[in-house]
Amino acid sequence: MLAYPQINPVALDLGFLQIHWYGLMYLVGIGGAWLLATRRLKAFDPTWSQEKLSDLVFWVAMGVILGGRLGYVLFYDLHSYIAEPLRVLQIWKGGMSFHGGLIGVILATLWFGKRNNKSFFELMDFIAPLVPIGLGAGRIGNFINSELWGKVTDVPWAMVFPNGGPLPRHPSQLYQFALEGVALFVILWAFSRKPRPTMAVSGLFAICYGIFRFIVEFVRVPDAQLGYLAFGWLTMGQLLCVPMILGGLGLMIWAYRRETAQGAAQ
Length: 266
Known about the structure:
By secondary structure, the protein is mostly helical. The protein has 9 helices and 2 strands, in the order E-E-H-H-H-H-H-H-H-H-H.
């Protein structure tokens, strides 16, 4: 068994202001995505300025934060937030939904694309390889917050979490960091380095994220207020990943079939 590192969720306490590690992880994710985007900007569109890129990153970040928070409220704990509406503002305590954040990114990208003469999937293919930076940072934030831990286990790397009772558990936040952060970044970055048909990068992102998340949910404890939703083992996270995987497969097939059809027409 490994010892859980007792990290204070508050990174800096100024008395009148507390800065939480969870919030700092979002800054790390957004800042890292922006830096990587600057490296890909010329290949994406050499006519774009750094200011336009910064605008894109800003609006996508707003989509992540607002969509992630509202998605958690709607998908995972609506009754509780109706009872205490002000809790919606307490983002530093956790409670963000990836799938809600994805919806927020989609809406932000649609809006930004229309204003800047870029198609939705052109932008999504550009954004997708940047997302794992934020996902990985967010999972580290979950780990520091001692939340979203896994099921009780006797594996050598199990940990006793401060909020998880006396028994050792899977550090599922670190599994998600490794898969959704590191592995997904490597896959997408390598895949997107060569020219791909429009929609292919977005499709691969949806497939890989959906599969990774679906797998980890088997060892992650579901949200207490929801529990298992079907068959005694299916969680909300898994239910939301199924359409992602199917949609990603559809995008990949469509992208390559369209490329083949266009090549034949020429």
